[in-house]
Amino acid sequence: MFVADTKATRDDALAVRQRVFVDEQGVDESIEYDEYDDPDAPATHFVAYNGGDVVGAARIRPVTGKGDAPSRSDDPKTAKVERVAVAADSRGEGWGRRIMESVESWGRAAGYTRFVLNAQTHVREFYERLGYEASGEEFEEAGIPHIAMDKSLRDETS
């Protein structure tokens, strides 16, 4: 798992998101890609490789208050995890867990104490096993049912 800090690694992260969200799940490209994908955006992208194959991606960004966990949007130590994707042929091999462990480890080192995310409801239990708690009602995002979740990063070791 790497921070995607070069054009090539960012392109790899975007490519796996294209395969998972746009090609597989039918998310419109105009929704999938946003201002946080711009190279100068306040977001950190991650990409996972198995050998030379791209198998997963994620991104993390500071909470902005624009629809991000409104009750806690003023906390500068809260970040939002987004666009967590694992390629179809690599699912069930622990890549999702490894991606999230890397993202959380990076987040702790960057000073974040809490993560929020909007999980697709079919992977809610995956995030619950990682310590995330659901809150609120289910909602639709990009035509897919989601649930808001959050996790404290305080007093944990990875």
Structure commentary:
This protein has about 160 residues and is α+β, with helices and mostly antiparallel strands. It has four helices and seven strands. It has helices at about 5-25, 30, 95-110, 125-130, and strands at about 1-5, 45-50, 55-60, 80-85, 115-120, 135-140, 145-150. It has a seven-stranded mixed beta sheet, sandwiched between helices. Helix 3 (about 95-110) links the parallel strand 4 (about 80-85) and strand 5 (about 115-120).
Helices and strands, with pairings:
Blueprint: E1 2-3, H1 7-24, H2 29-32, E2 44-50, E3 53-62, E4 78-86, H3 95-109, E5 114-120, H4 124-129, E6 133-141, E7 144-152
Parallel strand pairs: 4-5
Antiparallel strand pairs: 1-2, 2-3, 3-4, 5-7, 6-7
Fraction of residues in β-strands? 25-35%
Separation of termini?
15 Å
Number of helices: 4
Q: Taking Cα atoms only, what radius of gyration do you get, to the nearest Å?
A: 15 Å
- Oligomer state equals single chain
In summary, what is this structure?
With 158 residues, the protein is an alpha+beta fold. It has four helices and seven strands, in the order E-H-H-E-E-E-H-E-H-E-E.
Keywords:
single chain; 158 residues; alpha+beta; 7 strands
